[in-house]
Each structure stands twice: as structure tokens, then as C-alpha cells.
Amino acid sequence: MTYPPGDDGQQGHPQQPGQYPPPGGYPQQGGYPQQGGYPPPGGYPQQGGYPQQGGYPQQGGYPQQGGYPQQGGYPPPGNHPQQGGYGPQGAYPAPGGGAPLPDPLVAADFGDWWTKVIAVLGRSWQPLLIIQLATALPALIIGAIIGVIVAAGGGVVLTAVGAGLSVIIVVAVALLAQGASVYVVTRQAAEQPVGAGEALSFAAGRALPLLGWGLLAGLLTFIGFLLLVVPGLYLLIVFAASLTGVIMFERQGIGRTFELVNREFWPTTGKLITAFIAAGVYSWIIQLIVGTFANPGTTLYSIVTNILTLPVTLASAGVAVVTYATLRNRENPQTGTPTLVQELQS
Predict the structure, then answer these.
(1) Domain boundaries, the chain
(2) Which of 14, 82, 187, 285 could form a disulfide with 192 if both were Cys (CB 3.0 to 4.6 A apart)?
(3) What is the pLDDT of residue 269?
(4) What is the DSSP string of 146-179?
(5) Helices (H), the chain
(6) Which class for 217: exposed (0-12), middle (13-18), buried (19 or more C-beta within 10 A)?
(7) For the segment 282-338, what is each residue's pLDDT rounded down to a tens digit?
(8) Per-residue buried b or exposed e for 92-105, using 16+ beta carbons within 10 Å of the residue's own CB
């Protein structure tokens, strides 16, 4: 088969219609392939702007270089955490798909501290709510009974005794709820199933240390406020940041709280102050809303206000655990959620 010369003296197009040029019939340069009109395997030409043959890139739709994988359109193993929320080295995925964070309870900075606290509330609000309801209702009933007895008997001594018993009951119930909440938050952060009943049972086993150290901490804080307020504020920060954690995880007393908090006192103070301000603003807004349809001081006002401010109570468990876990990690970087779970179960 012969081909007529083109205008430039080179071989041109085929003589007969429907026939195609032989291999080499078109020049390699100038933008057209040698055969078939498709690019070579690899997807892009070497010269001239068009590929030689093959038409499409390698399997997976993208070339090997340039930031895309060879097959499947996904990154190679190791770039993403494994199933169950943990990465190849125990990392946890950050909210929004960012870089993995090392622990769900240990905060890297101030912003991460708030992120971890909010994550606790979103992850554990159901058992935390059950714990609050299970502990608050008996306390209200017992308090009401004591109030009736005091009102019937009268007298200064009986009134003082009744008031003292009421305070002890309120403190004991609050500490029991806090201990159970710490248990739930820690176990669920490690993706271990846990119920409110199990948590309350565990906290009841440490009720005496919780009550004893809690009452002592409250007494010292009260005395501190009498001494020009500043000592009271200092003690309030130290005990709020670490007392429940020290009792629940380490089974130690008040002395350990100072050792743990003092090295990170000002960062801890800043976190707790912002949490206190946020809780105060939220509660104030709730009171304003409830006050539009119920008079302050009435039973309806008290009940509705307490129900709507439950998120503050639930969030306090996240504040306590994340703050304590962060303090432990600052003391020893190897300490994190796995360590705390082991200490609970020991």
C-alpha cells in the first residue's frame, strides 16, 4: 500500500477511503499519537502534548505521582485510624477530621480542653442524667422529711441539728453522684460499655473516702474564705480540679491535690474560671426565661429551673475528669485514658 506525498513532501494520508495509516504514518511530533489515538499506559505523553497509546491512566484513575494513590482512590494504609476510633498507635481522631489527638480526656491546650469537655457531654449525657436523677430524688425526699421533723419539734438545737444533717446529706449525695459520673466518663472515653447502676455501685464502694475528704475540703474552703477570701479561692480551685479524681483513681487524700495542681495552677485556674462563667451565664438565662411564667420562690419555678440547668451539672463531670486527666498527663506524659481505666479497675 502506498501513500501520496503531502504538501511538505512527507508521506500523507491513505489513498483509499476508510484506510488508516500504517505505524509511523503520522509524525511523532505535532500533537497526534502513532496508533489508535489514545495515550500510553501512564496517561500522559512524553512529547507533543498528547499520549502515544492506551488512552487512560493506570488502574485507580490517577497517575502514581502527584499526590494520588495507585489503586482505589484512597490513601495507603497507615494514614487513617483503624476501626473503633483508635489509630495505629492508639491515637483518637480529632473532631472535624483533623489530625489525630492523643487522648479523649487529655487536653493539649485551652481550646482543646473545651473541646474535650463538650465531647464528654455529648458522649455520656444519658448515663450522667440517670445518675443525677437517681441521686437527687432521694436527697430531696430525705431533706423534706428532716424539714417536717424540725418544723414539728421546733427549738434552736433541733433546728441546728436538722440543718447540719441536711448539709451532710446534700454533700454526700453530690459526692456520690460525682464519683459515679467520673467512673462513667472515664469508661466511655475508652469505649467500654458502662451503665449508671454499675457506676453508682462503684462510687458507693468509695463513699466513705468521698464523704470524709469532701467534708474536710468543704470545711477548709469555708475557713479560707473567712481569711480574706483569697485562701478560700485557692483551695476551691485545687479541690475542684483534682479532689474527686485523686480519691477515685489514686485512692489518696487532700495532700495529693496540692502536689498535682500547684505545678499547673494558673492554666488550671483559667480553665475553671471560664467554666464557672459559662455556667453562671447559662443559669442566669434559664432563670430569666422561667421567671416569665413562674414567680421566683415558688415550687414550679424551682422544679423547672433545676431541670433546665441539668446540662451544667452534667458538664461539671466533664470539667472534673478532663482537668484531672490533663494534670496527670502534665505530671507524667505516659498517663492517659488507658492508665485511668486501669486505676479504676485495680
Answers:
(1) 116-334
(2) 187
(3) 97
(4) HHHHHHHH--HHHHHHHHHHHHHHHHHHHHHHHH
(5) 110-153, 156-189, 196-205, 207-226, 230-245, 254-262, 265-290, 299-308, 310-331, 337-345
(6) buried
(7) 999 999 999 999 888 887 888 899 889 999 999 999 999 999 999 999 999 999 999
(8) bbeeeeeeebebbb
